[in-house]
Amino acid sequence: MPRPKSLIPRLCQNSKGYLFSKSDDGKQHWFGHETDPASRQKYAEFLSQYQQAPAGISLNSKGCCSVNEVCLAFMTKYAVRYRRHDGSSTSEVDCYNSVIRILQPLFGETSAAEFGPLRLRTVRDSMVAEGWSRGTINKHISRVRTMFRFAASLEMISSTVVTALEVLPPLAVGESSAPDYEPRHAVPDADLTAVRRVLDEYNCDLFDLMLLTGARPGELLSLTGGMFEKNGDVWRADLRHHKTAKRGKLRVLFFNLSSQDILLRHWKSDPDAKLFPTRRDTFSKAIQRACIRAKVTPFCSPRGRWTCCSPRT
Fold it and tell me: Which of 79, 158, 217, 248 is most solvent-facing, going by the fewest CB within 10 Å?
């Protein structure tokens, strides 16, 4: 059976990075380039004015609002916090979109006040049927609770609905057919060496910097010449924008002499120009292609600590 059509217009992006959405009549609505923070706000305003979905979606509804209204209120008013300093969305937005894709066809037009633990269990069973891993499913169910918790904060629903959803326990090992993947482990030095041999010079420099500094890919790609303090044999860079900045955490990277040699090869005269003007996903794909060419197990780079990983949903 074909997948039911989403009741909320999806945010799309063309090959040049411009964001748009389609209404039911097929008309395209353009919001600007993904690097423009205003483009996300324009999309939020478009959704708030979208009146063609069932149940008459309204962000000001109270009492008997539908699950669709809960999803729309969350994505337009709360999910905007999941974005980087350049205005682009983080992967968390994609995770919530995956949750809504399962939730809407099942209970989109259901009253949110009637969405309880049994219906949440049905949503979880659908995720199991999708073949998602147990850990992914538990995180997605937690995201469903987050959406309803936000709706309760707007007095769209009673807090007792949120309390009831908390009684569903996490999916335990062996409770369903949802797979459990093996823990990630350190990549052998031989694999790192093999991948390094097949990388081009530009990506190899980034690769080496990650191994030397333990930095995340996005942190290295955000570096500019004006961020460095060059006092002594060790340089330091204080990051203004990083993963834990919203929690008030500081993030400082240190660069030894070997790291400095790499940086100097990419140094720019403009202190505000990025030393490595490339996208994070572009660098990630380069690593994946290098793994295939080197015939090693594919690996990724969370927090700069190289680990092997299995394909995950």
Answer: 248
Domain 189-308: give its CATH architecture: Orthogonal Bundle (1.10)
Q: What are phi and psi of 65, to 5 degrees?
A: -75, 160
Q: How many CB atoms lie within 10 A of CB 287?
A: 20
What is the SS3 string spanning 19-36? EEEECCCCCEEEEEECCC
Task: Choose the weakest-confidence range: 79-83, 264-268, 271-275, 291-295.
Answer: 79-83
User: What confidence score (pLDDT) does residue 84 get?
Assistant: 67
Entry pTM? 0.60
Percent of the chain scoring above 70 in pLDDT: 80
d(CA 118, CA 116): 6
Q: How far is CA 37 from CA 33, 54, 88, 225, 277, in A?
A: 9, 30, 7, 24, 19
Please say whether the beta carbons of 161 and 152 come within 8 A.
yes
124 phi, psi to nearest 5 deg: -65, -40
Q: What is the DSSP letter of 120?
A: H
Beta strands in the chain (DSSP E): 12-13, 18-22, 28-33, 228-229, 235-238, 252-255, 299-300, 307-308
What is the per-residue pLDDT across 76-111, written as a single tens digit (0 to 9) for each?
A: 888 777 776 666 777 888 899 999 999 988 998 888
Give 155-197 pLDDT, tens digit per residue: 888 999 999 999 999 999 888 888 887 777 778 888 888 999 9
Q: Are 56 and 66 in contact (CB under 8 A)?
A: no
Exposed, middle or buried by CB within 10 Å (0-12, 13-18, 19+), for 214? Answer: middle
Q: Where in the chain is the domain with CATH 1.10.443.10?
A: 189-308
- Report residue 310 as tokens: 């299995």
Q: What is the DSSP string of 56-91?
A: ---TT--SS-BHHHHHHHHHHHTGGGSB-TTS-B-H
